[in-house]
Amino acid sequence: MADHSHNGNQHGTPEAFEVRVLRQDGPGQASYWERHRVSYEPDMNVISVLQRIAANPVTADGKRVTPVAWDCNCLEEVCGACTMLVNGRVRQSCSALVDQLSEPIVLTPMAKFPVVRDLIVDRSRMFEDLKKIRGWVPIQGTYDLGPGPRIAPAAQEVAYTLSTCMTCGCCVDACPNVNAGTKFIGPAAISQARLFNLHPTGASNATERLETLMEPGGISECGNAQNCVEVCPKEIPLTTSIGAMGRQVTMHAFRKLFST
């Protein structure tokens, strides 16, 4: 990105920068590129860039088009809704600052999820995978069960870090083992299995989670590329989780072998 510190030329006109968006009008339709020019403002992020395009949906060559569609919600890197590829890197667009990006700014949808429209993708597979690993703590009824088991502070710290997962899809999109030729469940679900196995009550379903991770598409299909931990916006130690769950799965497999 050019230096925007002067924010304007001698006539006071704000300088503009180029944005290239890979668009798609609907599921299964052909994608196409579109160029826009956006006037620079201080402290812009990619969401504000898309808002400017939506307010005046005219391409760089003057053609009026439909506004670009994208997802966002919290705008503070908590919800995970605004994930897309920004200049080729999968990340949250709310925390992608224009001043830190090279020009042109290239926006594309995540590659491992079905495109709904433009930059919006369907992340349903991640939520289905959370169902597979039983990503919840079971309770019986809604009445007061009293205080739960005590959890050591060290375990609490580990669990808190794992609980910050936004199901944003960054790790899944960056993983080379998640592709059309595999059923790999992906790093996020494996890490969530570790989180709920750590919980004293959640551990009651540990066997079912380990059985899921032993199935086709489970932990054995991780190729240890470590892309996931590089792109996680919450800096969750995903490779540590994969290693921990690999050991749990191995021990579970031995117990099954010698108990029959």
Concise structural overview:
By secondary structure, this protein is of the alpha+beta class.
Structure description:
It is a single chain. The protein has helices at residues 46-55, 124-132, 153-163, 170-174, 187-198, 206-214, 227-231, 238-258; strands at residues 16-24, 31-39, 83-86, 89-92, 105-108, 115-117, 120-121. It has eight helices and seven strands, in the order E-E-H-E-E-E-E-E-H-H-H-H-H-H-H. The radius of gyration is 22 Å and the shape is elongated. A five-stranded mixed beta sheet has the order 2-1-5-3-4. Strands 6-7 form a two-stranded antiparallel sheet. The termini are far apart. The longest helix is centred in the C-terminal third of the chain and has 21 residues, at 238-258. The protein has 260 residues and is an alpha+beta fold. A hairpin with a 2-residue loop joins strand 6 and strand 7. Helix 3 (153-163) runs antiparallel to helix 5 and helix 6 packs across helix 8.
The CATH architecture of the largest domain can be named as Orthogonal Bundle
Give the strand order of the largest sheet, numbering strands 1, 2, ... along the chain: 2-1-5-3-4
CATH class of the largest domain: Mainly Alpha
Question: In percent, how helical is the residue content?
Answer: 25-40%
CATH superfamily of the largest domain: Alpha-helical ferredoxin
Coarse morphology: elongated
- How many separate helices? 8
Radius of gyration: 22 Å
Q: Mean pLDDT score, rounded?
A: 92
Which ranges are low-confidence, i.e. pLDDT below 50, for 5 or more consecutive residues?
Answer: 1-13
CATH topology of the largest domain: Fumarate Reductase Iron-sulfur Protein, Chain B, domain 2
> What distance lies between the first and last C-alpha atoms, to the nearest angstrom?
64 Å
Q: What amount of the residues lies in strands? A: 5-15%
* Helix/strand structural class: alpha+beta
Say how many strands there are: 7
